[in-house]
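Hi Y.,

Following your request, here is the sequence exactly as I used it, all 302 residues.
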Amino acid sequence: MATGTIALPDERTVIASAPRRAPRILRVARHNPLGTVGLFLVLSFILVGTVGPIVAPYDPQEVDVDVQLQGPSLEHPMGTNGLGQDVFSRVLAGARLSLVIGAAAVGIGVLGGSLIGIISGYYGGLIDSVIQRTGEAGAAFPGLILYLTLIAAIGRGQDTIIIGIAITALIGGSRVLRSMTLVIKTSAFVEAARAAGATERRILVTHIIPNVAPIVIVIASGALGAAVLAEAALSFLGIGVEPGTPSWGIDLQGRNVEDAKVGNWYLIAFPGIALSLVVLGFNLLGDTLRDVLDPRLRGSIR
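Below is the corresponding structure, written out as tokens. Let me know if you'd prefer a different format.
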């Protein structure tokens, strides 16, 4: 009987605590409508980037001279460009390219930069000096020149864009996380753990990293939007992916479009709207995550 009596309250506690998460999530969403909109846009982008090329009604690279520069219709909801390619299919396929480049570049750059920044801020000394001086030299080097150097070394393409964006994110992420680590490592709870006999490695793993992880999420959210925009900008300038590749930046070029014709507005409008919504979604989501996850702002979220 005694054993059953002790187990019952524990069981009730576990069962009662689980459903509380859903009301809290709904409460956060209600107090942050813009963040909810941002999350919806980001999830929609991920969904389209994942299945878009599969459900596209036409081959985005197929040339059909019989349907050049046709306006939006039931057959081609977003019209066709100067090569007769379906704009709707190219927008769907372009989402896949932006998603892959953004996720890969941010995954490498932000996570790698965060790790470097944490190590730099926590251990300090010579390690910190070497990392920071290297980062300052990299930050002083123009990003466009760096990217053109990568093109000369390994050629144009998706991999080159990923490397270029990742290097930029690596430098920015490391400096932000270093500052956060310097603040957290002097906190009272870290000093208490050290006084209790915790090793430096244990403090780093159990106290420093968990407390900077929310900041990493916020940085990654903002960097994803910046990466998508950077890929589109490079492709728009003609130094991104290869010509003909489904890309929002290439579609915004208008090289195959008679720019003087007002009736061709749809060729630029639809890729531009898609790009704008994605960047807006990441920015709104990043701002909301900062408010929700930043320890200094958690009191404002009920």
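Confidence is low (pLDDT under 50) at residues 1-18.

Thanks again,
Q.
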